[in-house]
Design goal:
- The structure is a single chain.
- The chain is of the alpha/beta class.
- The protein contains two helices and eight strands.
- It has an eight-stranded mixed β-sheet, with no helix packed on it.
- The longest helix has 28 residues.
- It is flat and about 90 Å long.
- Pfam families: MlaD.
- This is Outer membrane lipid asymmetry maintenance protein MlaD.
- It comes from Ectopseudomonas khazarica.
- InterPro entries: ABC_MlaD, Mce/MlaD, MlaD_Phospholipid_Transporter.
Length: 156
């Protein structure tokens, strides 16, 4: 009888460990088990969305206030359209707020940072952030630097 109790205890302990690892993996990947709660959608148009992915964080002052739910191409303006799902408790963002695609560290993941504007009208469900700053592509920056240094050498 004591052997059976020991086996059941070890089994329960092992199941708890597997469940803890599963929850940790879901948390790290950005997936959630339950509903997101009270949220609203806002759209932003960017010239270049290089490296930004669905489920990327949306932050303001370093605090996560939402996530990217969709990325697609606007067929009329040929710009990238990003759908942001913002937390309902952040319902006082001015309409003239700025959305920028930022990089965590030098070569880290891309996320969207919101800078607050000064207008009294606030963003609502379905609003568009018009003032955006696109992603900085490291390869383009290096190419411009090399092209400028070649042009300077030819001029001398």
């Amino acid at each position: 009888m004591q052997n059976r109790t020991l086996e059941i205890g070890v089994g329960l302990f092992l199941m708890a460990g597997v469940l803890a690892l599963l929850l940790l993996a879901l948390r790290v990947s950005g997936l959630s088990v339950g509903s997101a709660g009270d949220t609203y959608k806002v759209y932003a148009y960017f010239d270049n969305i290089a490296g930004l992915t669905v489920r990327a964080k949306v932050t303001m002052a370093g605090v996560s206030i939402g996530k990217v739910t969709a990325i697609d191409l606007d067929r009329d303006s040929y710009m990238g359209r990003v759908t942001l799902e913002l937390d309902g408790n952040v319902d006082n963002l001015p309409e003239d707020s700025t959305a920028s695609i930022l990089t965590a560290g030098l070569l880290g993941e891309k996320y969207i940072g919101i800078s607050v504007g000064g207008e009294e009208a606030v963003l609502k469900d379905g609003s568009t952030i018009h003032d955006t700053q696109s992603s900085l592509v490291l390869e383009d920056l290096i190419g411009k630097f090399l092209l400028n240094s070649v042009n300077k050498d030819e001029a001398n």
